[in-house]
Amino acid sequence: MKIFSRLYRRVMMWAVHRHAPVYLSMTSFVESIFWPVPVDVMLAPMALARPERAWRYAALATLFSVLGAAFGYLLGYALWEPVVQPFITTMGYEGKMDIARQWFDQWGIWVIFIASFTPIPYKVFTVTAGLLQMAFLPFLLISLVGRGLRFFLVSGMMVWGGVRMERKLIQYIDILGWLCLAAVVVAYLLLRH
């Protein structure tokens, strides 16, 4: 079934849409607070479709992601009980919040860098940083460095790989898509409690 190749073609059409930078900015902002879809899903095809704008897209993603992180921090800091805690309970994220607190105890500010650069859910750590009243300026600076490294790396890979990488991606997209889906299902089954 060629589901992923059809989806890929559609995403590439969206990537060149005239409002794509606005959508990227909005996605970057909300992903740092609650949105489950990583920014890379939108950034990579945009950088691949328009490599001459890749660095601008990475800068937009970084800026709006850090602004979203600041908003998430403020939610955790000022609106934990009336807003955030009920949302966490509804989404079943209590365990993730406990893990985030443990990681903050163990690694301190470096957990922000780890969460901002890796696929770990950054949003959990932005809100937890506010809840734990972490120093705001270091939080912002570490977020800026981590998110910037991640998004500029993604854009750089798309520029570097260019047309060759796109041809290979199109050739194997369906296989890769099904493998990723299988990996997500296996991870879910292994990690659920």
Automatic annotation (TrEMBL):
It holds the Pfam family VTT_dom. It comes from the Bacteria. Keywords: Membrane, Transmembrane, Transmembrane helix. Residues 55-157 form the VTT domain. One of its GO terms (cellular component) is plasma membrane. Signal peptide: none annotated. The chain crosses the membrane at residues 20-37, 57-80, 107-125, 137-160, 172-191. This is VTT domain-containing protein. It comes from Oceanisphaera psychrotolerans. The lineage of its organism: Bacteria, Pseudomonadati, Pseudomonadota, Gammaproteobacteria, Aeromonadales.
